[in-house]
Structure formats: structure tokens, C-alpha cells
Write a structure and sequence with these properties.
This protein is an alpha+beta fold. It has 2 domains: 183 residues, no CATH class; 112 residues, Nuclear Transport Factor 2, Chain: A, CATH 3.10.450.50. The relative contact order is 0.11. Helix 3 packs across helix 4, helix 7 crosses helix 10 and helix 8 crosses helix 10.
């Protein structure tokens, strides 16, 4: 497919109106057309450096979510530059770190909420475009992005704990992920995108079936195939130097009175995150009120499971 030519073709007004009815290629061309002026705004406020680049990419991702809010399609360029200015000002006045990609942050709320912004994105196929771009990232970058912007594990320290890397590495990977994400979004705007909901829905069914199977003491075939003998429990519940399978570990907590209840699912082709609420009335073990399963898969089967316990909110 020939690359987009930002300087040719329809007007901003035409592109905006087409983007508002779900044409991802039109939005990709609009972003490519105004990328230079958006970067100029960021540089004028933040100077040269990664913060300016991050602000431009955050603004591009915000535009995915908010393109339907544009009231004057002919002034889309000014609207994009205003988003960049806002992103820069937020960076300048931040006293502490908070999730940064507004266009992605707003995709994660509690399952089933009527106000879930993802409902708006589904109407335009923007969600599928975003998730296809996420899947193009290397696994390390994809994991930190999924945690930061689609899960409840959002602080740099929590992500560092989950990934077992220093906080500085998390910052670096997020910066790389933002850069690559913006590039992939523009280059894939006119392509067809898979339905991302099918992967998430399938993972949710697997999570519910797994929990139910462990409650009843047996794994049906379709679930046992998800957890082959080679699956390894790693991280806090694993044992260094010893291969431990998740089934006996999880069953020991279950038999001790700990119950897990599925709260939220984030899933890609080879990474899945199952977030759980935890109850332990009369249990032998006292667990935090929530935890998350980080699963790394190959050919549909779980290779590694790491259980993460998010830190309490201060």
C-alpha cells in the first residue's frame, strides 16, 4: 500500500467528517498532515527532548477518542494544536506521575459501566485500530503499555514490580512504546483491523472457566489445554530454581479459604491480564483485596503466569 501523502487530497473538513463516521484512514491522514505543527507547539512549550515528543504522541492518541467532539471540522488543525498545548501544560504542572496517554487511559473503566468510553470507540472501529497498533509493539513495550493504560496497575512503581525491572526501565519502555505506537497508528490507518473484542471476550471466558474449574476440583479439557504441564508460576508465588505449576499453588490458596472474583480482563494475542477481587473470610491466608494474573502465552497456551499484588493507594 502506498504511504499516506499528508499534503494532498481532501481538505481538513472532509477528513474530519469522514473520521467522525469511523474512517480510520481519514484520521490517520489528518494526524500526518498536522504532525509538524503539533510538534512545533510542543517544542515551543517544552523545548527539545522526550517530553515534547511524548506530548505530541499523547495528543494524537487523544484525538482518536475525541474526534467526534470537533464542532468545526475545518479548524481541525487548530483543535489538534490545542490538544498538544493542553498535554504540555499538564506535564509542566504535574507534581507527581499519573497515567499519561489520555486517549488510552480513558479506554479502561470498570467492566459494564454505561459511560465506558470504549463504547464510543467501538462505533468508529478506533478500538480495533488501537489494538492492532498495540500488537505491533515488541512484547516488553506492549506489556508496560497494557498495564499503564488498560489495567488497574498504573503507577510506575507497580509496573516495575509487576515486570520485575527498575522504575527507570519502565519509563524508558513507555517512552519507546508511545513513539512506536504513534508511528504504527499513522502507517496502518488505511488497513483493515481485526475485531479486538473477540480476543478479550475469549480470554474472559477462559478466566471464568478456570476459576470455576478450580472451585470444583477438575480442569475440563479446553481449560487443561490452556494450562499445560510446561506452564510455570514465576514471580512472588514461584520458587527460584524450581519449576512450579500454577494449579497446585492456586488450589492451596483456594483450600485455605481465599476466593478470587474476576473484575477486569485485558488481552492481546500473547499477553493477558486478569484482574481479580479477593475475599478471604475465615481464610488461613490474609491476602490483599485485589491481585492480577499476568500471563504470557504461546500457541494459545500459557507459558508463564506471574501473580501481581498492586500496592495500596496512599
Amino acid at each position: 500500500m502506498a504511504p499516506l501523502d499528508p499534503s494532498a487530497g481532501p481538505t481538513d473538513e472532509e477528513l474530519t467528517r469522514r473520521a467522525q463516521v469511523g474512517e480510520t484512514g481519514a484520521l490517520g491522514l489528518l494526524l500526518a498532515r498536522h504532525q509538524a505543527s503539533m510538534r512545533a507547539v510542543a517544542l515551543s512549550l517544552l523545548g527539545y527532548g522526550p517530553d515534547a515528543e511524548d506530548a505530541v504522541q499523547e495528543a494524537a492518541l487523544t484525538a482518536l477518542r475525541r474526534i467526534g467532539d470537533v464542532r468545526d471540522p475545518a479548524a481541525a488543525g487548530a483543535w489538534l494544536r490545542a490538544i498538544v498545548r493542553n498535554a504540555c501544560r499538564m506535564r509542566l504542572r504535574r507534581a507527581r506521575e499519573v497515567p499519561g496517554l489520555d486517549g488510552l487511559d480513558q479506554l479502561h473503566l470498570n467492566d459494564g459501566e454505561a459511560s465506558h468510553p470504549e463504547r464510543r470507540i467501538e462505533r468508529h472501529a478506533m478500538r480495533d485500530w488501537i489494538w492492532d497498533a498495540v500488537e505491533e509493539l515488541p512484547q516488553q513495550l506492549r506489556l508496560v503499555l497494557m498495564l499503564r493504560h488498560f489495567s488497574g496497575i498504573t503507577s510506575y512503581q507497580e509496573i516495575a514490580d509487576a515486570c520485575e525491572v527498575p522504575v527507570g526501565t519502565v519509563r524508558s519502555r513507555l517512552s519507546q512504546a508511545r513513539t512506536k505506537m504513534a508511528q504504527v497508528l499513522i502507517s496502518t490507518a488505511e488497513q483493515a483491523h481485526d475485531d479486538a473484542s473477540t480476543v478479550t471476550d475469549g480470554s474472559r471466558r477462559e478466566a471464568l472457566a478456570t476459576l470455576q474449574a478450580w472451585e470444583t476440583g477438575g480442569l475440563p479439557r479446553e481449560i487443561s489445554e490452556l494450562w499445560p504441564a510446561e506452564t510455570e508460576m514465576v514471580g512472588r508465588l514461584g520458587r527460584p530454581g524450581e519449576r512450579v505449576h500454577p494449579v497446585p499453588v492456586m488450589r492451596s490458596y483456594l483450600e485455605g479459604g481465599v476466593r478470587q472474583h474476576l473484575h477486569h480482563v485485558v488481552a492481546g494475542r500473547d499477553i493477558a491480564i486478569w484482574e481479580m477481587d479477593v475475599t478471604h473470610h475465615g481464610a488461613d491466608h490474609v491476602c490483599p483485596p485485589s491481585l492480577a494474573w499476568l500471563m504470557f502465552r504461546r500457541d494459545g497456551r500459557v507459558e508463564k503466569l506471574r501473580v501481581v499484588f498492586p500496592r495500596p493507594v496512599q
